[in-house]
Amino acid sequence: MLRAYCPTAEGLAGSIVPEDGALPADALWIDVLRPSREEDALVERSLGISVPTREDMDEIETSSRLYQEDGAIFMTATLATGIIDGHPQSQAVSFILTPTRLVTLRYEEVTAFDRFAAHAERSPQMCGTAPMVLVRLLDAVVDRLADSIEHIGREIDAISQQAFRRARDNTTQQRVSNLALQALLVRIGAAQDALSKSRDSAVSLTRAMGYLAFAAPKSADIAAHVKSLSRDLGSLTDHASYLGSNVTFLLDASLGLISIEQNAVLKIFSVSAIVFMPPTLVAGIYGMNFDVMPELRWALGYPFALVLMLLSAVLPFAFFRWRGWL
Questions:
Q1: How far apart are CA 163 and CA 268, in angstroms?
Q2: Residue 118 contacts by C-beta under 8 Å, 6 or more apart in sequence?
Q3: Measured between alpha carbons, how far is residue 125 from residues 103, 156, 246, 263, 267 in Å?
Q4: pLDDT digits (tens, 9 = 90+) for 34-70
Q5: Contacts (Cβ under 8 Å, ≥6 apart) of 26
Q6: In 107-222, which ranges are continuous DSSP H helix?
Q7: In terms of Cα–Cα distance, which of 70, 76, 69 is closest to 53?
């Protein structure tokens, strides 16, 4: 899908461009989402540039992601999406800056793009030129990334409370069940996954900012904005590293809690075995050596013994499951 944004008195007005149509001559921003071959050809024909393919966007070499060609600046960055929604993903997005237009190429929805488009429709002063549209769009992306990292920070705090502030019943601390510990590890793994994608996105955007500061024409007057965004990304990277150390600590602490719970269960089993060993020993020595045993001539003595043996096995098992030890 091609969407062209043209400047108006109220702001940038977006409209969908059909595959067999033409790009508006005054379009400042052309947003390309999941393009077909015809749409790729339309952009290349209209702007005289070569649009990178999805395989090109997934390349990890810096030279394949940041370069200049046909008078345009090509930058491909990895953006973390879906973190706040609970479905973190990493998406490659290309920003192509020509002297008069900005082209963005992506294959998945990015919330920051939709928010920026809605804001730009009401703010004509923020998008006077294509370079300014680019830095404002990157600003929205960085702002969304900051929100995502803050969301991860709150999730890590919640995990910490779950791990170290267990529920109490009066003065007796309740034990943590195996399912609760497993859920804790799952949350830690999800937080680490989201944090890793966010940090990769911050590093990728930092590289793009450095290249933009070098390659952008001085007449674009965006150097101050790029420098500010670079500082913000540096702060986000440092904060993500700090949160990463917290996640590592929580993982070690959770594994320690699991070890403590396992040792406690084994201790209970050991004590139970020791408690029942003396009666077993006495029964083994004297149980069959009495002249008078009423059950020997009882017609239901044998079924009673079977039921008693079954209960002696089932009741401890049910008790241990109820306590969360199994």
A1: 23
A2: none
A3: 20, 39, 42, 66, 71
A4: 888 888 888 888 888 888 888 888 887 777 788 888 8
A5: 6, 7
A6: 111-120, 130-164, 178-215
A7: 76
pTM recorded for the entire structure: 0.76
- How many other C-beta atoms are found inside a 10 Å radius of the C-beta of residue 75? 23
User: If you count DSSP H runs as helices and E runs as strands, how many of each does the chain have, helices first?
Assistant: 8, 9
Spatial distance between the Cα atoms of 120 and 174, rounded to a whole number of angstroms: 54
Cα–Cα distances in angstroms (integers) from residue 201 to residues 29, 66, 120, 193, 195, in the given order: 23, 15, 24, 12, 10
Residue in 67, 11, 1, 76 with CA at minimum distance from that of residue 40: 1
DSSP class of 190: H
Residue from 187, 178, 198 nearest 160 by CA: 187
For Cα atoms 118, 121, 122, give the angle at the middle one, nearest 5 degrees.
Answer: 100
Question: What stretch of H or E contains 259?
Answer: helix 223-286
